[in-house]
Every structure is written in structure tokens, then in C-alpha cells.
Amino acid sequence: MLTEKNGSFQLNGEPFQILSGSIHYFRVVPEYWEDRLSKLKMLGLNTVETYIPWNVHEPVKGEFQFEGMADLEQFIKTADGLGLHVILRPAPYICAEWEFGGLPAWLLRQDLELRSSDPVFLKHLTDYFNVLLPKLVPYLTTNGGPVIAVQIENEYGAYGNDRSYLQHVHELYKKARIDVLLFTSDGPDFIRHGSIDEAVTTLNFGSKAEEAFEELEAFKPGSPLMCAEYWIGWFDHWGGKHHTRSAEDAADVYRTMLKRGASVNFYMFHGGTNFGFMNGANHYEEYTPTITSYDYDALLTEWGDPSEKYFAVKNVLKEFTQVPEQDPEPVLKKSYGKIQLQENMSLFDYIQNQKPIKALAPRSMEEYDHHYGLILYRTTVEKQGDLELDVTPIRDRAFIYVNGKLEKTVYRNDLEKTITLPFSEPSNQLEILVENMGRVNYGKHLKDRKGVLKNLWLGAQYWFDWEIVPVELDRINWTAGPDTRYPRFFRGELQVESTADTFIDMAGWTKGYVWINGFNLGRYWPAEGPQTKLYIPGPLLKEGANEVTVLELEGTGEPEVWFSDKPGLGEGEE
């Protein structure tokens, strides 16, 4: 069992230094869990750390998912089979640049205070933990398992000061018999509001290690030194540059911490991918959604290859401990060439068979239990002329059609919040197709509802009587029709003799999503960068025919895609 004694950690009564790396099971296909964990062990680390995202495991209130990429127990077993210790971070909030910081979007249907002792929030959390926590108990070291520590909340000091909420989480752990070492983690400036007496205080930072440890010593004299998140890279957002950090700099800071005898967890050892609609977003000066890749400039690349940083860190570890002689090899990658996506249909034909919801006025996606992707709002405008529309309530990006013609595309970052639309007939159809580009995962804008949040002010009045169509994309039924408008689905077939990792090149396309054999790879937006290709893990392919589906939102030239053995993540630093 891991304990703290005299300012250091002990495991089963012997001094123990946690040498850890983060791998998020929910960002890696299960077929690659053992590969990534083996490479962590080859580096010389003894522990793997992972968050546990609530929205992955309870996507719908009362409906729980623990299979496939959500099979947390199998991930723990795989780590245990390799002789690795495990640190779990159930949170319930994880940040992690993950959609809504791991909180389920259905929480936004109610007027509640997130991450607080609000009884409504605590009831939902208790319901979830009553299912999750018993699954963890058999894997605790106190029961012969590999889990040495569990986190209480996550970076709470950077959000609030409700210590009774933190105590409630602690009580839920006690009730569930989570009896291993507990810890909190915050940036050095926030540990006072994010810590509780019953848990070890740990730190999150990317540099200035000595200053950070001084803050910890001043707050909790004699506390074990641990950096629970050593940020060795950073995440990217659409329209920005690919963040990089030199291997030498990352290794030097790591050496500084090891010299102090500190325990360290690399964030990230291996970042993986924000598959599907699960990328998060930040909102400081403006809204910035995270890209599909979560490469993070980590020790392993998004596709699992060791980076220069990996070997620089291994050289540092050799100065302090024995490390395996074996080094990991790059993953097999293949180019499969070009294919044409010959079949296509309009999204508007696709949704013809979906029964619309009648509503007096528009409301957010969450009000309709529709959490990701797209939603259509339409109404009849019985007024002629050029009318001004206030687009402030629209989140995040919307295509606005009048009488079937695309008139405007608006984005929540647009400075101009009033647009002019032409209504040529006495009676006109107004359609607003809204894209959710990822909920904010950090800070004061965490309550990030999507769609049209309230009724729209058009032509100096509100318009009532709407139809709402949540666009279901979990299973795409091909119903081609006469509509020529975008968004459009495109479909083609990739023939594969032998499977390997590959990258789908979306050059020539504008913005949208890609599915391989029904698996949602995520978003593309090559013009914005820094990502121009999407990573396809080999296990998603099969020998023979593979179905490739693209939903292009705005327009494309030749409907063709390339499959390359080279990634498409832009170079440069920011």
C-alpha cells in the first residue's frame, strides 16, 4: 500500500518514487493499450495514470457504458499484467481538453451549480459514483490490485472554493471503500482552495519546478513532493499552431525534479486522439475548440512512435535508476493511395425521415437531449424585405438558409453580432443548421450550452412556432434525394490487403467529419490548421472492403481522399 511518511512516499513500507506517465484509455483503441503501456515500461517508468471521464461512462442519465474504448477495468488489468502500478483520477471533472471537461452534457438541462455542493449536482454525482467506484475497489492495492492512489476532484482550486463539496467526494470514496492514498492536484497558485486535510496535495506545472515546490512547502510543510501533471507539451486548437517543446528543455526540468527526489507524472506520456465529437474547447479572449489530434508533443506521438523527447527522458532516468535496455520501434504505417467517394447525398435529404420537434421558441441542444454534432432549427417568416437578425444566442457555428439558399455562415467568434438576411416572399422558410464544435472544458465558461440558446430577434420582433430536428449521426442511413445543398455526405470504399496505421488526407475538403467502417474519427478543418490529416489506427481497418464516409459541411472540389503513411500535424511552436 502507498503511504506518506516523513515527507516521502512508501510502498509496502519501503521508500518509493512514483515515476509515472499519463495514457488515457478513452483516447486509444483497446487493441493498442498493451503496446502503449509496454512502451511506458520500456522508458523506465513504474506507474501509469489515467483520468476517468464521466461523459464516456454515463453518456445518458442512468445508462452506463464500460465496453470497448470505455473498458476501464480491462485497461487496469493490462497495466497490471505488465507489472505497472496505476493511478486513477475519477474527478468527476477531468479538464483534459476533453468535451465539457468530462462532465456529461445532460447536466446542462438543469439549472444547477457544477462542481459544488448543490444538492442536485451531488445527487447526479452520487448516482454515478455508486456505479463507478465499486468497479474500482477490486483493483486497489489493499485488495491485491495495482491501483496505488486515487484523486479527489481535479484542479478544483482553479474553479471554486466549496470545500464541503470536496469533503462530499471524500465521503463517497470512504463509503465505497476506496482506501488507498488519496490526493488532490492544482497549479501552485491554487493549492489553498483545492486541497483537503485528508488527501496529499500535489502540483501541476510545466516549468519552474523549484518555485512550485516552495509554494507546496509553504502551504504544507513536510509534504511529499509530487508533480501530478508535468506538462511536457501542450494541446492545439483550430486556427493555431502545433505546439512543440524542445526535448532538451523538457528533460532538464525533469532532471531538476528527480534530483529533489520528487515523484513525477508526465502529462502526457501518450496523448492519443479526440475521436468522434469529444474534443473540448477553451474560452478566454475568444472561443478556441481543440483539434482532433491530442498528440500533445508527448513522449509518444499520437500514433504511438517514440519521439526525440522519449529518448532524452530515458537518458535522464538512467542517471537515477535502472531502465530497460530495450527501446520501442515505430508503428507500422502504410499508404493506401487515393479513392473516389462516388456516392453522395444532402444532409437535408437525410433528415427528411426524422420527425421534427415542435416548439414555441428555440432552445439549446441539451434541452432536446441531443448533445453532439448538428441540430436544425426552422420556422416560417411571414415578412418581406431585408431583415436584421441578432445571432448572439447561436453556439457555435451556423449555416443560415432562406428559402433553401445558404445566405450566411456565422461563428460565435464573429465580432459582428447582427446580420442582414433577404426575405423575398410574403412567406419564407428560415433554416438555421448549428454545429456544436466542442464544449468548454476549463474556467468560468464551463456551462457551455449549444445550439440556439433562446428565441431569435429578427426584423425587430421575436418569431414563434419552430421545428427542431436533432441530426442523428450515430448510425447513418443512406437516403439520397434531390436536394443539392451542403452539408453533404460522401461515401466510398477502400480496399486493403493488409491492415496498418494510416492517415486520411483531407486536402481539398473544407470542414466536416470522417467515419471509417462506422467509427467516427473526428473533425477536419484543414484550412484552419494545424491538422490536415486524421489518424486511422490499423485495428479500425479490415482486410478487403472498408467503408469511408465523409460529412462535408461547406463544400469540396473533387470528392477524393488520400491515405498516407505520413501524419498531417503542422510544424512550428507557439
UniProtKB/TrEMBL annotation:
A Pfam family hit: Glyco_hydro_35
Coiled-coil blocks: none
Active-site residue list: E155 (proton donor), E229 (nucleophile)
GO biological process: carbohydrate metabolic process
GO molecular function, one term: beta-galactosidase activity
Domain Beta-galactosidase galactose-binding positions: 487-546
InterPro entries hit by this protein: B-gal_1-like, BetaGal1-like_ABD1, BetaGal_gal-bd, Galactose-bd-like_sf, GH, Gly_Hdrlase_35_cat, Glyco_hydro_35_CS, Glycoside_Hdrlase_35
Ranges for domain Beta-galactosidase 1-like first all-beta: 362-471
UniProt keywords, alphabetically: Glycosidase, Hydrolase
The Glycoside hydrolase 35 catalytic domain, residue ranges: 8-319
Domain of life where this protein originates: Bacteria
Protein family membership: Belongs to the glycosyl hydrolase 35 family.
Protein's name according to its UniProt entry: Beta-galactosidase
Lineage of the organism: Bacteria, Bacillati, Bacillota, Bacilli, Bacillales
